[in-house]
Design a protein that fits this description.
InterPro entries: GK/Ca_channel_bsu, Guanylate_kin-like_dom, Guanylate_kinase, Guanylate_kinase_CS, P-loop_NTPase. GO terms for molecular function: ATP binding; GMP kinase activity. The chain has about 190 residues and is of the alpha/beta class. It is about 40% helix and about 20% strand. It binds guanosine-5'-monophosphate.
Length: about 190
């Protein structure tokens, strides 16, 4: 493996288990800093402002973009805007922490252009059927939203070859170890 990257971008389709993998990775490597995105999506039950996301209005989001405060941003699933505030990422890197961004394909492509030194990892499901099963069984989206997310997932799956590495999330434990190794954490 080449030198540990300062910045790692993790993308992958809806319901592939990015949240679970990232939470387990953070637990195992407290030095890791995971960027807290800003979003115009309303919080889900149990989500905490400033921890899971910075929940902002459309106006607040647009003004962050206009002032150049976003490292990248995208309209995800054609509905809500999500973006990475630039300053906390730069600060954490300057302090010597490995930094992880968990963002969508559009965002990953933007970071590829502006931070070509970053490492790009795609988290893939064991199969398409398994992805559908995970999305339906988590039950956080209604039927229309599930269909929209699966549509985006199809596009994202086709783009997996653009990434430096593909990690298959068949077991969380194994996916976490693989990701940690790619990030030079172990
Ligand atoms: P959710 O609404 O389920 O929390 O997230 C939906 C999607 O938004 C996920 O696929 C996630 O990768 C993406 N996302 C979360 N934060 C960001 C961000 O800061 N930038 C971009 N481009 N996508 C994000």
């Amino acid at each position: 493996m080449t030198e540990a990257p300062a910045l790692t971008v993790l993308a992958g389709p809806t319901a592939v288990g990015k949240g679970t993998v990232v939470a387990a990775l953070k637990e195992r490597h407290p030095d890791l800093r995971v960027s807290v995105s800003a979003t115009t999506r309303p919080p889900r039950p149990g989500e905490i402002d400033g921890a899971h996301y910075h929940f902002v209005s459309d106006e607040e989001f647009d003004s962050m973009v206009e002032s150049g405060d976003m490292l990248e941003w995208a309209l995800v699933h054609g509905r809500n805007k999500y973006g990475t505030p630039r300053r906390p990422v730069d600060r954490a890197i300057a302090q010597g922490h490995p930094v992880l961004l968990e963002i969508d394909l559009d965002g990953a492509r933007q970071v590829r252009r502006t931070r070509p030194d970053a490492r790009f990892v795609f988290l893939a499901p064991p199969s398409w059927e398994e992805l559908e099963r995970r999305l339906v069984s988590r039950g956080t989206e209604d039927g229309a939203e599930q269909r929209r997310r699966l549509e985006t997932a199809r596009v994202e799956m086709r783009a997996s070859a653009e990434f430096d590495h593909i990690v298959v999330n068949d077991s969380v434990e194994r996916a976490v170890s693989e990701l940690a190794a790619l990030m030079g954490l172990e």
